[in-house]
Specification:
heterodimer; A: mainly alpha; 15 helices; globular; B: 371 residues; two-stranded antiparallel sheet; 13 helices; elongated
């Protein structure tokens, strides 16, 4: 197990280095420079050049990259043009909303997706199966922002059950009731991904349920619930885990629109703001943080596989 | 797998090409047929968009901003079934709430007419005409889906929106597939260091979440570009990222086809690489590519609508369903004007139809499927 972890960790470091490099290249490709954004359209070319010199943007690309890279290792992602604060601090301030939203959405994904998939697989081709499949396909086809707007109309507008927008920090106020604001967004965000998980859970369960050990377990006279949950679901878990780890990327993309719909002060709405304001360092910082997080999550997923399936450790 | 199949079934399929077999299976797929009909219908709407829309999608009815959908009456005041008609939409200022309220001016009935004359346009871009599918004559108006904040007919805008929303997908496929085919093909066929490099490269591209990446690349589009140029810019951005996932799958497919007996046999009798690629590998990829193309379209439609919804996609006067929905982005707006959410139905139905179609095609082309 140990050597497996070491090998995967080395792979992760390589991926992070690539991510840092690509983020840097990406920002070089985009025309326009932070100096002219900060100084506005009325600045003279000399003033812009002067600011570029102070920031070191007139140095050769490789020197800039070296500086950028060293700063990255020190945890310095530069300063936001718009907020005039370190990028990492701004992301930190916005992280709470996004992290809670992500966790709650993941709960929706797992809580809806796996049971739906298992129920469909246990009764294949029944009306339950067909309707769950259709529901899953419909779920995967709804734009999450539109679903969010509809939920807002029904649950906030008509029924007045839940707040329609905004969010105040739970950590700062200690008021857990604030999480109510995240229920609708989390559902809008999670539902789309739950559909994908349900489909994978169904097909993976169907494969496992055909196996001989399931017949054996049933022949031993075990209860259906034990056979399904203990023998089948645990063995079907690997593909399901893969899809759930994929949902991270899709949750991040989804959060960008969902946070905007529900006016949540998260990282997703921060990136839209930054793009509209052309706040290059902030965009770069968010991209980097999110991509690195994604690499780390892939690493954790791989370790989970190794934990779930001992065969993987010895490959 | 083959052994599991009913011998009679195999007998029946003898002498049928893969395409005939796929077509036969596809026709039996109910959900797939529904998808195909919807997609076909939407493309008809796209082609005849000006004919179907009663008003130019940019025409502003200044006195009728945020008008609700026009009510179509099928029964007259005595409750008798009659030819559908509408009343003129009018508005008055409510002096208690200080808001404009719409009401039906019941003094005169306006019958809905088909093939009426309206604004001039060119049918199929060629034939100048002013005939429209439906409309009302005189000073009444017909807004099936209501109007937006500038008094523009939402129905006409949704209809014209097909020109962007439906076209994004095929364009993205047209650009990203050749890239994916080339890079994935090279990677799978030749392997080695090239393969290693391309694999790592596509992995990193895929490790960036798509929407934020699209957003930041959207910044690279010059501000002075015309709406059409911007549309193509956005298609290009989506394609530049979209190829990576596909290239990986193509690599896997090429890798497995390359080591199959018939490819080995071709190599043994001295066929050169190009012949092997063109005669043996590409034909085996086609069915997969068709399925992948159909399933790429929904992602592109959702992507474009998300970008335009956030105000970073296409610009006016072009319209797409996502852009139309961006008008409905606050709780207050959709409470007061819920009809602004209608374009979302079109996005959902279209994406669903393409998903149905893609699933059906996948089942139809699967050579090992137990029927």
């Amino acid at each position: 197990m140990f050597s497996y972890i070491v090998r995967r960790a080395a792979g992760m470091v390589v991926s992070v280095l690539l991510v840092v490099t690509i983020t840097f290249i990406l920002m070089q490709l985009i025309p326009g420079d932070p100096a002219s954004v900060l100084l506005g359209p009325n600045a003279t070319p000399e003033q812009i050049a002067a600011l570029n010199r102070t920031w070191g943007f007139d140095r050769p690309i490789l020197v800039q990259f070296y500086k950028y890279f060293v700063n990255f290792l020190r945890g310095n992602l530069g300063e936001s043009i718009f907020f005039r604060q370190p990028v990492l601090r701004i992301i930190g301030q916005r992280a709470e909303t996004s992290v809670f939203l992500g966790i709650m959405a993941l709960m929706v994904v797992v809580g809806l997706g796996i049971p739906a998939g298992v129920i469909a697989a246990v009764r294949p081709n029944s009306w339950v199966d067909t309707s769950l499949l259709l529901l899953a396909l419909a779920g995967a086809s709804i734009p999450s922002f539109w679903l969010g707007l509809m939920l807002m109309v029904v649950f906030a507008g008509k029924l007045h059950l839940l707040p329609s927008s905004g969010y105040t920090s739970v950590i700062a106020t200690g008021n857990l009731a604030n999480l109510k604001n995240l229920i609708l967004p989390a559902f809008a965000l999670g539902f789309v991904n739950a559909a994908l998980v349900a489909r994978t859970a169904r097909s993976s369960m169907l494969d496992v349920l055909r196996a001989d050990y399931i017949t054996t377990a049933q022949a031993k006279g075990l209860r259906d619930s034990v056979v399904i949950l203990k023998h089948a679901l645990r063995n079907a878990a690997i593909p399901i885990t893969t899809v759930i780890s994929f949902t991270f990327a899709s949750l991040v993309s989804g959060a960008v629109v969902t946070e905007n719909v529900f006016a949540l002060p998260g990282v997703g709405s921060l990136i839209v703001q930054s793009v509209l304001k052309r706040d290059y360092p902030t965009i770069q910082g968010i991209m980097l943080v999110v991509a690195v997080l994604y690499v780390v999550i892939n690493f954790v997923t791989d370790l989970t596989y190794a934990f779930l399936d001992p065969r993987i450790r010895y490959r | 797998m083959l052994l599991l199949r009913n011998p009679r079934e195999i007998e029946k399929e003898k002498g049928i090409s893969l395409w005939q077999l796929a077509w036969r299976r596809f026709r039996r797929h109910k959900v797939g047929r529904v998808g195909a009909v919807i997609v076909g219908f939407l493309f008809l709407v796209l082609i005849f968009a000006e004919f179907i829309s009663p008003y130019p999608h940019t025409k502003q009815f200044r006195s009728l901003t945020y008008a609700p959908p026009t009510k179509i009456h099928f029964f007259d005041e005595n409750g008798r079934l009659t030819w559908p008609f509408v009343y003129k939409t009018a508005r008055k200022l409510n002096m208690e709430t200080f808001t404009w309220e719409f009401y039906e001016d019941k003094s005169k009935k306006y019958r809905i007419k088909f093939f009426v004359r309206g604004h001039r346009y060119k049918l199929l871009g060629l034939i100048p005409t002013d005939i429209h599918l439906f409309g009302v004559e005189g000073d009444a108006t017909i807004f099936l889906f209501g109007t937006d904040e500038m008094g523009r007919d939402l129905f006409s805008r949704v209809v014209m929106g097909t020109r962007v929303s439906l076209v994004v997908g095929p364009f993205v496929v047209a650009i990203s597939f050749p890239i994916a085919l080339l890079l994935g093909g090279i990677s799978g066929f030749y392997g080695g260091a090239v393969d290693m490099f391309l694999q790592r490269f596509s992995e990193v591209i895929m490790s960036f979440p798509r929407l934020p990446l699209w957003l930041s690349l959207g910044l690279a589009l010059p501000k002075g570009w015309s709406p059409t140029m911007r549309f193509f810019g956005i298609v290009l951005i989506m394609s530049m990222i979209g190829w990576a996932g596909l290239a990986r799958v193509i690599r896997g497919q090429v890798l497995s086809i390359r080591s199959m007996d018939f490819t080995e046999a071709a190599r043994a009798i001295g066929a050169h690489d190009l012949r092997i690629i063109v005669r043996h590998i590409v034909p085996n990829l086609t069915s997969y590519l068709i399925v992948a193309a159909t399933l790429t379209v929904p992602g592109a439609i959702l992507g474009e609508s998300g970008l335009s919804f956030l105000g970073i996609g296409i610009h006016e006067p072009m319209v797409s369903w996502g852009l139309l929905l961006s008008k409905a982005n606050t709780a207050a707006t959709i409470q007061s004007y819920p009809w602004l959410l209608i374009p979302g139905i079109f996005i959902t139905v279209t994406v669903l139809a393409f998903n149905f179609l893609g699933d059906a095609l996948r089942d139809a082309f699967d050579p090992f499927r137990v029927v």
